[in-house]
Amino acid sequence: MISPSLQSLKIALPRQSRGCRKLFRRTVVWLLVIVCPWVVLSLVGERVCLSEEAPAEVTISSEESPFTALTLRQALQETLARQPQLVILRSDELVARAAWRAAWRFPTSLNPSISVEVSPWVFDPESGDHLKTDVAVTFLQPLELSGAQSARRSQARAEYSATQWQRLGQELRALIEVYRLYETAVYRRERIKLVKQLAQFQSNLAETIRRRVDAGIISPADLVLSQVEESSLRQGIPLAEEEYHSALAELQKHMGLPEYARNVEAVDDFLTPDKTITQELVDSLLEQAARCHPDVVAAEAQVAASLAAWRLASAERIPVLAVGPTYQHDESGVTFYGLAMEGTLP
Prior knowledge:
By secondary structure, this protein is α+β, with helices and mostly antiparallel strands. Helix content is 62%, strand content 12%. The protein folds into two domains: 4-51; 68-342, Outer membrane efflux proteins (OEP). It has a four-stranded antiparallel β-sheet, with no helix packed on it. The chain has a two-stranded parallel sheet with strand order 1-4. Strand 5 (321-329) and strand 6 form a beta hairpin. It is rod-shaped and about 150 Å long. The model is unreliable at 1-21 and 27-66 (pLDDT under 50).
């Protein structure tokens, strides 16, 4: 069988002898047999070579600083955005808010119900004649007479409020802790500078004492004592730097930054309160904390939620009544209208 490509070649060729046609076909077939596998192998080899190429190496410039400048404001903002506990509390707040909204809707047990009964095959027991169709329709609406729905709303609202205040209290504690850790890091950074300055001062003092010893003014024992103090101060510099880096690591951990993130460096100055702490200020702060502290308000909301749950449990002891109209058309042609009521006994 001739392939479509060969068939097209046969059609395009002029009329020639039968031997020439056979020779041409054999030549084309041999070309296809020899050339096609070579092309396929070359393509496959090229793909293999491309797949075996080594990945490009990523080089990091050594001139880039290993630290990231961090201000106190940035530290507070990153803490509010990244700390895992705050992220979890915000998710819990969304859940509590959705539950509060769902509480405003009636539960499915309070949805109205309708029952339809149709008996088209009704026969007279004596004559066997077919009678009229018996139809009964009843519409029932459940009613909560105990106020359970109001208790559900109150409980959901109190739980939502408690979640909000818990989140606010956690945010305040996180900000206070970040402020403390940041100022601790700043203090230790300034302490490094102070230790270096003291070491340099002691070095200058030792040099001055050396000249005085050479001049014979003082004894060599003073020079030895000065050199010991200088060596002690020099040894305190690595310890101060280690304490500073430890404070930065603690700050980075509390902010919620991952361990593989770049290290941070505190760049702000040491911040102290502007106001002088007086007894009146302390009394005012204590009064405000007792009145509107997040933990206090959250506890009050939890008490309200517990009270609402107790009211709901008491209200659910009263059964739900279902009341509605009813219609019935019996086999004799008589129509009935009335009122139906269903309920469980307490």
